[in-house]
Automatic annotation (TrEMBL):
Gene3D superfamilies per record: YVTN repeat-like/Quinoprotein amine dehydrogenase
Lineage: Eukaryota, Metazoa, Spiralia, Lophotrochozoa, Mollusca
InterPro entries registered for this protein in UniProt: EF-hand-dom_pair, Quinoprotein_ADH-like_sf, WD40/YVTN_repeat-like_dom_sf, WD40_repeat_dom_sf, WD40_rpt, WD_repeat_EMAP
Biased composition (Polar residues): 211-223
Subcellular localization, as worded in the UniProt entry: Cell projection, Cilium
Protein name (record): Cilia- and flagella-associated protein 251
């Protein structure tokens, strides 16, 4: 019978759902279907089969055949099946003789009920036949009723199904009553609640049908012609005739459904699947009916209904009588039978009457009726599932035209959200009490997906239950973004800072790469210094994740590739959770452990909980409910130091309350719940299994069994099992108490990666092979042709539509089993130890190299002078050229057995000079990187630190770590090397900090300058003629610093009339020197961002070079910009963290648009976009004129220091005119420059004689070029600038004084440092800026208190003889550091001086 039912068309999805919801809902649904038909036509019963004919418009026209078909009661076969069922029930639950009599009575009632129902249907069919024939003749003349006839036919079929379903429900309830026996009556409250639910569902279905019909009004032709209205073909017509003929042979619809009821469960489930599938094919034309046509049909139906009411009075009375009889039978059996009564669906009065009768019957159950709570709960569940299926079905029935129109109004991100539904963790016990986050409404396609799920056959109830149990509830994350994405590719974003990272070259191979591909995008995530890079390798776009202050040390991603976690180690460490759809941080946990960051992170399979492993010295495993609280973990456990540094975390995918971590020597298993955590560290040595174990790399839990695996460095897999008595029964309940079970050798090489995908265990080894095993550790397949280096990371894509079955036409390889089935696995990303990332498309095994970057420190960096080309080289010997506009690699070359340390383009951009750590210098062209000389230059034995070209490319100079410079000269003759050795000279005794070519102003010939840590600036004669072939010789040597150490230098741009070069020192000062006289003309305070400037260069410009220019610079870890000319205003400079582990080099694009910084040991190069407008805005916000400098004074304009400075400034005028003079003094706003040193000393700044000279020269020559004469005085504003710029940036510290004293003193055997009195006086008179004996006596006498403060200028004449005697008496023979600093100089040392060695280290580091 199931095969016969297969061909019966299902008219509407809602009718089937209503039948599932219950008899009352089925009746309401059937009434709604008839009311929506046109002209009030009556639906023919199954006893009057209709022939399907197709008119000119392709609409089905149903014509009722003449004649009647007799209906009969149940067949003998049905009766036999019923008897069998009764026997089975009696065997399960024996009954007494009285119960047997009751069973026989109920069987008789059942047969009587069927006969009465058949008679009723036969009479009803006779009445409907005459009316239908007359109406059909009229319909032939009206083409507008064609669609209504089709609905009439479908309504008839729905009515037949509802009647049969009702009878089936009655018989099933009869059998259930026999097995249950007599019981207490059902409570009236439950019946009322059930009827209310059914009526509510009926109202909702009617409203949704009317709304959908209204929406389809404007798209009538499209919805009928283009969007799937199925035409009934001649074959379908024949199938319907065969079905009706079979129905005649069987008897009637009641007998057919009886046979279906008695069929096996498998046939029933198969039948429901067929009905659901047929409903999906048939219900769309009904929903697509235009609103105007329906309204016209309903008006005509109302008119005909009035006429028919007169003719049907007798029929109504007869129907009511039969209904009363059926009601009495229903009360005896305790089950509703309202759905077997099929009245005229177009008569509202009859419908209300039937509903009232149904309610009365439910409220008055028959004695002996018993309904268990489980059955009631099951009915409620069925009704809810039916309602959900009904809602999904309504959406499915919308025409495609309406769906397309709805899609057109959606934002662009909807398309992506359709293809990629977000996987959301199921609610746990702890999360049930928490409010769920708001979820955006589903899109049309997502609704269709839900509809497909609800339309599945009911033979798989477990799948539906699991889906309902894991209802998608997003974790209540703070500021949770929408699941919709506005773009499928990753794009960079511009910020309001003066420097913005727009691209990052290179990668950190020490942190595994993560696959972010999810069916919508093809992307990966990897750290690059302190930023995370989301790289869309399909579209070649990056999105930078900036939040960390330290290099990123670990990362993890959720299974759906949405939530990303990054962590770092160092000061101000943090853990960030990112939304990869928007690239914004969702949660930040600042300094999660005080010890300094995390070394490993992991997310649970549902992404709700986060696990972190802290860094040394004390490791802590913490579990965080990051969606709720980012400050306090749910639970944590402190680990013992002897376990080693745990650096890997893995959650059990079936029970995330179990966790495993491992170090190289110990594996630890954890179990956490209810805020508590316990862990076990099972021991394992080489002696336990009499074989070597190796160093642990990664661990995981097996699926389906209580075992775990750990990979080792020698190719072993350690199998861990529950620590329980020996038994052959495999335990499936996970336990944290484990022990080693066995060691399995799976590879000859070390295993670096151990992970899972679907049901496979995946390993990656040091040979670069990727192997797949099943849960029994049987090898299924492996990839070994990558040739990309040792595997360090394997990450699989999230493919929502992934199926393990190979589709037709695919090219999946065959696995290693005997069946050689296609090996279907998700696409994955492989990361290697040599900084190669490759993507593997498993369908066809296509390998694509995504990145091939530097795997060693990057120090060499140079920008092309005329093209958007950047060259970068590393210690791996790789030199790579990038087009930074298109973000594409131009060419690359590997220099074997060489570590590239520096590189430089020549001024025209034709050649690149490359310096290596072994002293070799290569010269290659800038297009193909081909050698331009025969072999490298090997003049030096030490590392080449600097390379420079002259402005006309005539000379090329190098500086090496041996404090030597080498010059090469260009050759014009063909057939020779492009450059040849010209000269070499060692002029410094400390490392060379910078090398630069300048020009002679008179001849425009190049001149070479070198600057060293020995504070010497040396100019070279490049045409020296001597006894040897060496033509390089120093022509001028100048000591430009006394105490500070110069760091770098660069040519000053032509924004002044004089020619300068600029230097930076380790005391945060910028100094301008005249390029001809080497005189210091200006000293200003430089940027003070943690460390001094290490390298700087003037940003090129394409406009007028005389306008305002900018200086780009790097410190130890920051990159910044500075306005020129420099004035000491701190608001003219800015800096950002570029590479926390240190910046090794700086380069600037030829047009001044971008800066490039190399990170050295972090293998990365950042590209920064320059935003000058932001820097200008920052400078204006800082104030103008003296306002920024007032802020540099302690207390500002209203502070004590400023008031004291004013007093001293005016006192200096009195002092200059004479303290003891009686003449009238002239007080103005300027003081002579000769008084400047005294005011400086009075303010607590004690400059040297050289520094005083520099200050006076700065004042005198400030306007010399413009005015033509020296400036002899200074006003208060100029003095404030002079004081702020020349004083120490961070004051004079006792530690620096202590370091200076210990440098001069002698260290005794006991470690104390003392200086004899005679040696001290001798040093002060002979070394450095030596003093005369008279000056020394005067100053010491004043410091020791013999003279009044102020010296001889303001008081009487100084007596040197008396002062000498006093010094001999007051100054001790052995002078210690404490006496020198505390008693003589008058500085306070609050702590004891540290040891000699420690002091030197502290002071030197502070000074540098």
């Amino acid at each position: 019978m199931a095969d016969e039912e297969k061909d019966v068309p299902i008219t509407d999805d809602n009718s089937n759902q209503a039948a599932e919801e219950g008899p009352g809902a089925a009746l309401d649904q059937a009434l709604d279907i008839n009311q929506s038909s046109a002209g009030g036509e009556e639906v023919a019963n199954e006893e009057n089969p209709a022939d399907a004919e197709t008119d000119d418009n392709g609409v089905v026209e149903a014509q009722v055949e003449d004649g009647e078909q007799e209906t009969s009661g149940p067949t003998a076969e049905d009766t036999t099946v019923d008897d069998k069922e009764h026997c089975e029930i009696q065997e399960e639950e024996p009954v007494s003789a009285d119960m047997n009599d009751q069973v026989e009575t109920q069987d008789t009632s059942e047969e009587t009920l069927k006969e009465d129902q058949a008679d009723k249907l036969e009479d009803q069919g006779d009445d409907h036949l005459d009316a239908t024939d007359q109406e059909q003749d009229e319909a032939e003349h009206e083409q507008g009723h064609d669609l209504d006839d089709e609905k009439d036919l479908k309504g008839q079929e729905a009515q037949e199904e509802l009647e049969a379903e009702g009878i089936e429900n009655i018989e099933q309830e009869l059998l259930s009553q026999v097995s249950v026996g007599a019981g207490e009556p059902q409570e009236e409250m439950e019946s009322d609640s059930q009827m209310d639910v059914e009526k509510t569902q009926h109202d909702e279905i009617e409203m949704e049908i009317q709304e959908q019909a209204t929406e389809g009004n404007t798209e009538q032709e499209n919805s009928i012609g283009d969007h799937g209205e199925q035409e009934v073909t001649s074959e379908e017509h024949e199938e319907q005739k065969h079905v009706l003929e079979d129905s005649e042979k069987q008897g009637d619809a009641i007998g057919d459904f009886d046979e279906q009821r008695n069929s096996s469960n498998d046939h029933g489930e198969h039948q429901e699947a067929i009905e659901d599938q047929t409903e999906d094919d048939e219900h769309e034309p009904l929903q697509a009916a235009p609103t105007d046509q329906l309204q016209e049909d309903m008006r005509e139906g109302n008119e005909q209904r009035d006429e028919e009411n007169l003719q049907q009075e007798e029929k109504e009375q007869e129907t009511e009588q039969k209904t009363a009889e059926e009601t009495e039978e229903h009360e005896e059996t305790g089950q509703e039978v309202s759905d077997i009564v099929e009245t005229d669906k177009e008569e509202r009065d009859a419908q209300d009457m039937e509903e009232d009768q149904g309610k009365d019957r439910e409220n008055v159950p028959e004695e002996g009726e018993e309904v268990s709570q489980a059955e009631a709960a099951e009915e409620t569940t069925v009704e809810e599932d039916g309602k959900e299926a009904e809602e999904a079905g309504v959406v499915e029935s919308l025409p495609e035209a309406v769906a397309q129109e709805a899609d057109a109004e959606m934002p662009p991100s909807t398309e992506e959200s359709k293809e990629e539904p977000t996987e959301v963790p199921p609610a746990t016990e702890e999360s049930k009490e928490e409010p769920a986050a708001q979820v955006p409404p589903p899109t049309e396609e997502s609704k269709e997906e839900v509809g497909d799920i609800t339309a599945l056959p009911q033979s798989e109830p477990e799948v539906d239950n699991n889906e309902n149990a894991s209802a998608p509830e997003l974790p209540p994350a703070p500021h949770l973004p929408s699941v919709e994405r506005s773009h499928t590719s990753i794009e960079g974003q511009m910020s309001t800072s003066a420097l913005n990272v727009v691209w990052s070259f290179g990668l950190n191979r020490l942190v595994p790469v993560l696959n972010l591909s999810d069916g919508v995008r093809q992307a990966i995530m990897y750290p690059c210094a302190h930023v995370g890079i989301m790289y869309d390798y399909k579209n070649n776009k990056q999105h930078t994740l900036q939040a960390h202050l330290n290099p990123i040390t670990c990362s993890a991603v959720s299974q759906d590739k949405r939530w990303l976690v990054t962590g770092d180690v160092g000061p101000d460490a943090m853990v960030n959770i990112w939304d990869t759809y928007t690239g914004t941080p969702i949660q930040t946990m600042f300094d999660p452990n005080p010890q300094g960051g995390v070394v490993a992170v992991a997310l649970t399979p549902d992404s709700r909980y986060l696990a972190t492993l802290s860094a040394l010295p004390t490791q802590t495993l913490a579990i965080w409910d990051w969606t709720v609280d980012g400050d306090v973990p749910v639970c944590s456990a402190d680990l013992k130091p002897e376990y080693g540094v745990q650096n890997f975390i893995f959650f059990d995918p079936t029970d995330f309350h179990h966790v495993v971590t491992n170090s190289e020597t110990q594996v630890i298993f954890y179990h956490w719940a209810d805020g508590a955590m316990e862990y076990f560290a099972p021991p394992l040595t080489d002696q336990d299994f009499n074989k070597p174990v190796g160093r642990y790399s990664q661990s995981l839990f097996q699926i389906g069994i209580a075992r775990a695996l750990t990979a080792t460095s020698i190719g072993n897999l350690v199998v861990w099992d529950n620590n329980r008595p020996l038994s052959k029964i495999m335990d499936v309940n996970q336990s944290a108490d484990k022990k080693p079970l066995k060691i399995i050798k799976v590879h000859d090489k070390g295993i670096n990666v151990l992970t899972t995908t679907d049901q496979y265990i995946v390993i990656g080894d040091t040979s670069g092979h990727v192997k797949f095993f099943d849960q029994g550790l049987r090898l299924i397949y492996w990839y070994r042709e990558f040739n990309s280096g040792p595997c360090t990371a394997i990450s699989f894509a999230h493919m929502p539509d992934f199926s393990p079955v190979a589709p037709e036409g695919s090219k999946y390889p065959s696995d290693a089993t005997k069946q050689a089935k296609p090996f279907v696995v998700r696409d994955f990303i492989v990361g290697t130890a040599i900084a190669v990332y490759c993507s593997i498309n498993t369908d066809g095994t296509h390998l694509k190299i995504i990145h091939r970057e530097h795997d060693s420190a990057v120090h060499a960096l140079a920008a092309h002078p005329k093209l958007p080309i950047i060259a970068m080289g590393s210690y791996s010997g790789l030199l790579k050229l990038w087009n930074y506009r298109t973000k594409e690699s131009v060419c690359s070359r590997v220099f074997e057995k060489c570590h590239i340390h520096t590189c430089t383009f020549d001024p025209k951009g034709f050649y690149i000079a490359i310096g290596c750590t072994n002293g070799a210098v290569f010269l290659v062209d800038s297009v193909a990187l081909l050698d331009q000389v025969q072999g490298p230059f090997k003049s030096a034995r030490d590392c080449i630190t600097h390379i420079a070209f002259s402005h006309n490319s005539r000379y090329m100079a190098t500086a090496d770590a041996g404090f030597t410079i080498t010059v090469y000269k260009r050759q014009r003759k063909e057939g020779r090397n492009l450059y040849t050795w010209h000269g070499r000279y060692r002029s410094h005794y400390k490392p060379i900090r910078d090398l630069m070519f300048d020009v002679h102003l008179d001849t425009n010939e190049p001149k070479l300058l070198s600057l060293g840590e020995d504070r010497m600036l040396i100019e070279y004669d490049l045409n020296y003629v001597g006894k040897t072939n060496n033509k390089v010789w120093p022509s001028a040597t100048d000591r430009i610093e006394q105490g500070a150490i110069p760091q770098c230098m660069t040519r000053y741009p032509p924004i002044t009339k004089e020619h300068f070069f600029l230097t930076a020192t380790d005391q945060y000062k910028l100094k301008c020197f005249n390029s001809t006289t080497k005189m210091c003309r200006k000293t200003v305070l430089g940027p003070t961002y943690g460390s001094p400037i290490r390298k700087m260069m003037v940003v090129p410009t394409q406009s007028d070079e005389s306008v305002s220019r900018f200086l780009a610079y790097i410190t130890d870890d920051k990159v910044g910009l500075h306005f020129l000319p420099a004035t000491g205003n701190p608001h003219l400079a800015m800096a950002l963290i570029a590479h926390p582990s240190g910046i090794s080099n700086l380069a600037c694009s030829f047009d001044g648009s971008y800066l490039f910084t190399a990170g050295g040991p972090d293998f990365a190069v950042h590209m920064w976009e320059i935003n000058i407008a932001a820097l200008e805005a920052q400078a204006k916000l800082g104030g103008e004129d003296l306002v920024p400098f007032y802020g540099l004074l302690e207390g500002g304009r209203d502070g004590e220091l400023y008031a004291e400075l004013e007093d001293l400034f005016y006192y200096a005028q009195l002092r200059h005119q004479g303290i003891n003079s009686t003449e009238t003094r002239q007080i103005g706003n300027r003081v002579p420059i000769s008084e400047v040193p005294f005011i400086m000393r009075a303010m607590g700044f004690y400059p040297s004689e050289q520094e005083i000279e520099d200050m006076l020269n700065e004042i005198k020559y400030d306007e010399y070029v413009n005015l033509g004469h020296y400036q002899e005085d200074v006003d208060l504003g100029q003095f404030i600038k002079l004081y702020v710029n020349h004083r120490p940036a961070f004051g004079l510290s006792p530690e620096k004084l202590l370091w200076a004293f210990e440098t001069l003193a002698h260290t005794a055997e006991d470690g104390s440092c003392t200086l004899e009195r005679g040696d001290l006086l001798d040093i002060l008179q002979k070394n450095g800026e030596h003093m005369t004996e008279y000056e020394l006596a005067e100053h010491l006498a004043t410091l020791l208190g013999f003279n009044n403060e102020g010296g001889t200028c303001e008081q009487e004449e100084f007596d040197a003889q008396k002062a000498g005697q006093y010094i001999a008496d007051a100054l001790p023979f052995d002078v210690s550091a404490e006496i020198m600093i505390n008693e003589i100089l008058g500085f306070s040392m609050t702590t004891d001086p540290p040891a000699a060695d420690d002091t030197k280290v502290v002071v030197k580091s502070g000074a540098s």
